[in-house]
Amino acid sequence: MTATEESVRGVGDEQPLRLRRLGLGDLTGVEELERRAYKTPWSRTMFSGEISRPGSRCYGAFIERSLAGYLIVARYTDAWHVMNVAVDEPHRRLGVARLMLETMLRETDGDGTRGHTLEVRVSNHGAIRLYESLGFRPAGMRRAYYTDDREDALVMWRGDGPDTDTEPLVR
Ligand SMILES: CC(C)(COP(=O)(O)OP(=O)(O)OC[C@H]1O[C@@H](n2cnc3c(N)ncnc32)[C@H](O)[C@@H]1OP(=O)(O)O)[C@@H](O)C(=O)NCCC(=O)NCCS
Questions:
Q1: How far is ligand 1, taken at its centre, from the CA of residue 101, in Å?
Q2: 129 touches ligand 1 (CB under 6 Å)
Q3: What CATH number was assigned to the domain covering residues 114-171?
Q4: What is the pLDDT of residue 163?
Q5: CATH H superfamily, domain 1-113
Q6: pTM of the full predicted structure?
Q7: Which one of 21, 32, 36, 78 is at 20 to 30 Å from 61 when CA atoms are compared?
Q8: Ligand 1, residues 36, 72, 92, 124: which to mutate, most atoms within 8 A of Cβ?
Q9: Angle between helices 96-108 and 125-133 in degrees, nearest 10
């Protein structure tokens, strides 16, 4: 991907948001944001594995030189799998996650052999709303999927994949 520069709501002309692929040099910023965003954060090794993997799509959204958010997507035989997405608290509800996901979907939609899938905590209504607005639909549940508190995961699919419910879950 060539670097793109976008203005999203509230991140205006003075602070353009730049999207580019992540490299190993971004690991420290990613790790720090991850620790702020999640109770049970991914390790640095997990991020470096995904960033290094051929076929993965890993994006960072930057304001000036500072990382505002990231998106990690792995390519499997049958699907693009959204593995991790986070936006730093001060930059939330400005459209940063939407912009990263839309960019990824635009770049991978032409690949007719794969749909897109993800898991999300059933309590994470904001994220579910975001995914539904991008065309993801509930397709099943993984019971006690999250090892820290045994919360269930909602499995969502967009495009080719297991049959999905047609009705959005969150309105
Ligand atoms: C979930 C997360 C990535 C969303 O990032 P974001 O940049 O704030 O999301 P966006 O601004 O692009 O949101 C787009 C839309 O999604 C929905 N949405 C996002 N966050 C929401 C929230 N907390 N509550 C309700 N709706 C929400 C809204 O419809 C929003 O549009 P609106 O602002 O016009 O109402 C961010 O809150 C985050 O990092 N959370 C912690 C980590 C996490 O839960 N990651 C997802 C794991 S599956």
A1: 11
A2: yes
A3: 3.40.630.30
A4: 59
A5: Gcn5-related N-acetyltransferase (GNAT) (3.40.630.30)
A6: 0.92
A7: 78
A8: 92
A9: 40
